[in-house]
Every structure is written in C-alpha cells, then in structure tokens.
Amino acid sequence: MDQWEAMLRRAIALGDNAVAFNHYANFLWRKRNNRSEAERWFRKAAEMDTGSPGLDAAMRGIYATFLWEGGDPVTAETWFHLAFLKSRMDLQAISAFAAMLTAIGRVDAGLALVTELLSHPRLQESPKRIACGFELLGWFLRYAHGDEGMRRHALTEIRARLAGCQPLGRFLDLSRNAKAAAAAGHPATDLVAALVKAMQSDAGRATEALAEVERCPAWRD
Fold it and tell me: Residue 102 CB: number of other CB atoms within 10 A?
C-alpha cells in the first residue's frame, strides 16, 4: 500500500494531469478511506480542461458519482450536468446519473437516461464484456424501477446476460436502488437485492451470487 501510494504521489508531482489526479483520489477514497483528501483531488481532476471532451466528461462524472455516494445528490447532479455539457459519450457518467436519479425517486428522468444508455452508439463500439456490463445495468434499473410491463421485459434481458457478464465491481453502489425499489413496493425485493449482489460481486464470488439469484421465486417464474 505504501509503495502504491508513493508511485501515485510521484505521478501527481510530475504536473497537472487529470488522470493521475483521479487515480490518486480513488486510492485515497477506496484504500485509505480519506474522503476529504480524496474529494480535493477528484475536484482538481474535474475542474481541469484537458482539451479532450470525452476525458473531461469522464472526470466530471466520476467526481459526481463520488459526491452522490457520499450523500450529496444535489451537488452531484450539478457535476453530472457539467459532464454532459462536455460530452454525452461517457457511458459511466450516463449510467451513474441514471442510477442516482432512480434511487432518489426521480424515476422518469432516470429511466429516460437508461433508454439513452441502452441505445447508445458506443455500446456497439465497445468490447463485448464492457458493453454487456452497461446493458445489464440498464436492464436492472428498468427491472428495479419500471412498471410491470417494463419489469417483465427487463427480466428477460437480464436472464440472457447475467451469467455471461463481468461483474461491475465497485463502480456503483446499487444497494440504494434496491432500497428505493423496496420502498416503492416492488413485488420481488429479494430478487432485486440478489441481482445487486450478483452484479457487484467479486469475480471469485460470482458463482455463489448467481446461485442466490436463481433461488429467488421471481427468477424461476
């Protein structure tokens, strides 16, 4: 850990580089649990104008996701919009904003972003394992927050993808979406929660997480 941090500090000392700042911020957040210092470096990366609209959008979207996970959806929304002013080509920013909006009860706006995500041209250009993960996330949000018809269609799409997709890992905390779905009266809260575990499990626990999904009555119906 100390050697890792030393290398990251050497990288940021080389000069203003948004990617280096972002990597260091992520290390401070995930590995050192130092949110205040992580926020400083995430914001430095987000405020930079790198000359690449796609990179600028990604840095702003990552900072927005950090703010949302820290409990500040209002400021997070501002930074998501700033990301989209730069580019709407960053799938991670679109996905994270959709997940945030559906989790905080702005379902129509969130599902509109899901529609944009699932029809996005970058899905056709991305490697299959990456595209599959984003598609799975989109269908999950439709299943967790859509109406009955949308849930039925989404579950069919999830069944076709879940076993073959690489887990999303810690890119997003979807447990809030599971809680929001339960609060809204979702008829299969056990399956929603199990899908979250399966989508965010470590690779070594993917089989166990998938088995939990398959035990849910709604999955078998």
Answer: 27
Angle at 69 between CA 63 and CA 73, to 5 degrees: 80
Q: Is the pTM of this model over 0.85?
A: yes
DSSP 69-137: HTT-HHHHHHHHHHHHHH-S--HHHHHHHHHHHHHTT-HHHHHHHHHHHHT-HHHHHS-HHHHHHHHHH
> Helix, strand, or coil here: 202?
coil
What tens digit of pLDDT does each residue of 11-39 get? 999 999 999 999 999 999 999 999 999 99
Which residue do the tokens 């700033």 mark? 82
The dihedral built from the CA positions of residue 137, 161, 117 and 66, taken in this order, carries a sign that is positive
Q: Which one, of 71, 72, 70, 97, lies nearest residue 83 by Cα?
A: 97
Q: What residue type is assigned to position 89 of the chain?
A: M
C-alpha–C-alpha distance, residues 109 and 80, integer Å:
13
